[in-house]
Amino acid sequence: MYHRGVSEPPSIALGADHNGFELKRQLAVHLASRGHRVHDCGTDSSKAADFPPIAEAVARLVASGACTFGIVIDGLGVGSAMAANKIRGVRAATCPDEETARSAREHNDANVLALGASRLDLEAARRIVDVFLSASCTVERYRKRVEMIGALESGGEVSADDVRRITERVRELLHGGVTPARTIAPNDLAVLIDHTLLRPEATRADIETLCEEARQQGFYSVCVNPAWVPHARALLHGAPVKVCCVVGFPLGAQSTEIKVLEARRAIREGAREIDMVINIGALRSHDDELVFKDIRAVVEVTKDARALSKVILETALLSDEEKVRACQLAMRAGADFVKTSTGFSSGGATVEDVALMARTVASRRLGVKASGGIRSLADALRMIEAGATRLGTSSGVKIVAEARAAAGKG
């Protein structure tokens, strides 16, 4: 069985310098024979070629989620591993034998395999590759170590755990009756915000302003339509701000296949979070299995790419019973968040809806994103107090400015 039990073999990014060109060519044939989709990142001949840009190309395909695994080849496999490991989200391991390959996967969840062409013949390389691709990291104590490795490369990036701790601290202050203006740091609010621009008339200049504001304010992400994902990713290169993309937006009435294609492309182009709209009509028709499969299909795409999934309910169109049922289906599907609204329907987030959703998903510790109609510091704090762990708003700059002004008075 292949990685994570997917129904088809994982896709592979494959690259080599001139020393590994011939081995790469032969391994490409081997991988194709096993059903893998291979992305060849070069080099294309035995002429001298530097390994760093080739290793980078492989690593970026893996880090973006476009490919599940990467294989890089040079003379010894050491330099390519070092280059690949410079890309955030990549764990490259040089593996001279099958035992090392198995350990790299099972103990460290390596996602890029580095091979030394001068030390391996084709048969040995094939065996190492097969072991690497068939093993997986499932033991809890090893998973915790992998999380520690990821924490080392954060470089100031705010993790999901950081956001959770900040949210809990803000909520404690609010429930404790402490005056928010004097106690809640503006930066703590900023990292709870998905800075959002989903208007159909948004221009390239608007997206550039959005991303620059997100950099300056320290927002958690920018949330954009699919067409703007590559541009947003390029603008935010080197910044801790993530790119979030909407899928099935804003009606949720697209087929599951279209939502999956949207999610895959968005992740391939740089999105690290996907906000999908459920099939609202199916939910109201009590076709829960269709709704579940629709959510699950997108969740599987995000999990394979180590991205986050948020499920938009469009609460203004639902009864309380339907909201609860939608939350339960999102939990069953393995989603990371439930989200109130698209902002394009008859209403946005309400304190009552956020509280209901937070209670429903509390047992599985899903996040709750309040979105739609959050335009002031007071709105933001009410949503957090009700149970929101993320805020989707186009008024983030105004909200943080209000928080700074209030803190200054305090």
Overview features:
eight-stranded parallel β-barrel; single chain; 13 strands; five-stranded parallel sheet; TIM Barrel; alpha/beta; 18 helices; 410 residues; Ribose 5-phosphate Isomerase B, Chain: A; 14% strand
Task: Describe this structure as you would to a colleague.
The chain has 410 residues and is α/β, with parallel strands linked by helices. The chain has two domains: 3-152, Sugar-phosphate isomerase, RpiB/LacA/LacB (Ribose 5-phosphate Isomerase B, Chain: A); 160-409, Aldolase class I (TIM Barrel), CATH 3.20.20.70. The longest helix has 17 residues, at 288-304. 49% of the residues lie in helices and 14% in strands. α2 (51-64) crosses α3 (78-84). The protein has helices spanning 21-33, 51-64, 78-84, 98-108, 122-134, 140-152, 160-175, 180-183, 186-190, 204-217, 229-235, 256-268, 280-284, 288-304, 320-333, 351-361, 377-386, 396-409, and strands at residues 12-16, 38-40, 69-74, 92-94, 112-116, 193-197, 221-224, 242-247, 273-277, 308-312, 337-339, 367-371, 390-393. The protein contains 18 helices and 13 strands. It has an eight-stranded parallel β-barrel with strand order 6-7-8-9-10-11-12-13, surrounded by six helices. A five-stranded parallel sheet has the order 2-1-3-5-4, with helices on both faces.
